[in-house]
């Protein structure tokens, strides 16, 4: 399902600042927990929803800085893939 609306407005309202290569961009960080090994391990997946064009220069291994709970954390890019009609992408991250 593609968006016909202006994505800049969507990310301005819903997004948070993402810092990369001296630039500030907008994205939406999701951090769902997953329970593994019969409830013995809790792992957190880090996924960043972004506008594809804003993050076209981001590649595997790059480090993004994102404020979470007023603390700037660094995240390394693991994968980047376009979704839906390609106007948006999902970047999976590892906290460094």
Mean of all residue-level pLDDT scores: 89
Largest sheet: 6 strands, antiparallel, barrel
Structural class: mainly beta
- The neighbouring-strand order within the major sheet is 1-2-5-8-7-6
Distance between the termini: 33 Å
Give helix and strand order, one letter per element, not per position: HEEEEEEEE
The level of helicity is: under 10%
Approximate strand percentage? over 45%
Low-confidence stretches: none
* Number of helices, counting only DSSP H or I runs of 4 residues or more: 1
| Name of the CATH class | Mainly Beta
CATH fold topology:
Thrombin, subunit H
Number of domains: 1
| CATH level-two architecture | Beta Barrel
Give the strand tally. 8
If you compute it from the alpha carbons, what radius of gyration comes out, rounded to the nearest whole angstrom? 14 Å
Global morphology: globular
């Amino acid at each position: 399902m593609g968006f016909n609306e202006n994505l800049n407005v969507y990310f301005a309202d819903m997004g948070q600042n993402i810092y990369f290569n001296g630039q500030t961009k907008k994205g939406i960080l999701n951090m769902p927990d997953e329970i593994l090994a019969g409830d013995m391990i809790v792992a957190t997946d880090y996924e960043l929803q972004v506008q594809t064009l804003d993050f076209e220069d981001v590649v595997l291994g790059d480090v993004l800085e994102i404020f979470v709970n007023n603390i700037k954390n660094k995240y390394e890019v693991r994968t980047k893939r376009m979704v839906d009609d390609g106007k948006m992408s999902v970047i999976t991250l590892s906290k460094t």
